Amino acid sequence: MSNKPVQRKGLPGYYATLEIPKAVRPAFNNKRRFMQSLETQSLTLATRRLPILIAQWRVEIEKARGTTTPAANLEWEFLAWKKALENETDEDNREALEGYIVSKLDALEDAKGERVAQEAAGVVFGNDVLLASELGPWLASITQSL
After folding, report:
1. Average pLDDT in the 41-63 region?
2. Is residue 139 domain-shared with residue 74, that is, in the same domain?
3. Centroid of chain to Cα 62
4. Domain check: are 77 and 48 in the same one?
């Protein structure tokens, strides 16, 4: 994993990269690494966005290995967003990160519904906690309501 955002020669902005383990590359069309734009030219903001994207890719790798559950995937992503916010000390960067997370929550709402997005927002922005013992029933209730 790259601990820092990288710049690609000839392209503006910063990118996130993560090596894909050889054992699961077939699940990703034999790609050697994930690479995606962090959609900013600010190194500070790119550094804040990086852990969120890396967490999402790690979930994809765990899915490919067959060692994760839908509950763990959601929990990991929500907690990565929350941690990124907690670690941000610059107010302008925090606002930009919040906007990025809200756009991700909007996409979650489109995919899974308003209730799921609201519960995720409660975890990310509030004091709500998803306990492992409650994740299974919570996911079952989401699936049934969709």
Report:
1. 84
2. yes
3. 14
4. no
